[in-house]
Amino acid sequence: MQAQDIKQTLKSLIKEASTIDPSLAKRLEQIDRWVKDVKSGSLNGNTKRFLRLFLEQIIKDSQIWLDIQALSSQEEQEVYYTKMTATEKYWFRELFAKWLKENDPKFIIWRQKLMAGDFRQEDGDLLNSVVNSIEVRGGTVIKRYIADLSMATDIIVSSRQDKALCIQLTSLANKYSQEKSDSWESTLRFWAIERGLFLNYNPGKNDFINKIVNLSLHNSDNLKSRIYLKFSL
To answer: What is the structure's pLDDT at 46?
Structure first.
């Protein structure tokens, strides 16, 4: 999507959502007001790179969500969902739906970070390597800025079963990670995420990416509901 088209697309989606899903319209109006003074040209720059990526992501998700909500029956919606991967289905049916309807206490904080260019996702290359390895092994993965910034979830993973698992990755040493893991669990409980994996890895160890992938796939299949597992590699 061209940078100059983003704002106009947002406005079009707000108009469409106002008659289909007012909760989506409200969220998009918040975002529209937030970016109203951002010049389209600045979205092409490096400082606003993640802001633009977020806007493109929310636009795409909103278009899919409106397609689903515009279907006239529950049966038609179910058919639509059957065409998705388990991770996509979990994102739209559960997490994105909750985010539209519930108050997000972190929303105003990370909007400021994105606008200021303070969000850089330093672990982006690692996440891409993990995602690629999971997909090579037949799993599915979804990444969303909303999940990362509001729901303490770097990746949502599914392996052989039609279940998805929210995973947070960190390279903090164990003695420093307790506060982060406590906050992670609290955040998952706030969003009624039934299970999660907090995975503390050491990038200095051999084959750590493969170990992350193994644990992610195993726990996506086997971790029970209402369990928030904290694991250190």
So the answer is: 80
- Which strands sit side by side in the sheet containing 140-142, from one edge to the other? 140-142, 155-158, 165-170, 195-200, 227-232
Q: Give the Cα separation of 41 and 2 in Å (integer).
A: 10
Residue 220: name the closest of 162, 171, 159 by CA. 159
**How many of the other CB atoms lie within 10 Å of CB of 8?**
10
Task: Tell me if the pTM is above 0.85.
Answer: yes
Please enumerate in sequence order all residues whose Cβ is within 8 A of that of 114, keeping only pairs 6 or more positions apart, or say none.
50, 51, 54, 145
What structural domains and CATH numbers belong to the chain?
5-115 (no CATH), 124-232 (3.40.1350.10)
Which are the contacts of 73, defined by CB distance < 8 A and separation ≥ 6? none
Q: What is the pLDDT of residues 8-62, one digit of tens each?
A: 999 999 999 999 999 999 999 999 999 988 887 888 878 888 999 999 999 999 9
Cβ-based neighbours of 220, under 8 Å, separated by 6 or more: 139, 157, 158, 159, 161, 163, 164, 165
**198-230: b (≥16 Cβ within 10 Å) or e:** bbbbeeeeeebeebbbebbbebbeebeeeebbb
CA distance 42 to 48: 7
Beta bridge partners of 200: 170, 232
The SS3 call for residue 166 is strand
The bridge status of strand 155-158 relative to strand 140-142 is: antiparallel
The amino acid occupying position 186 is: S
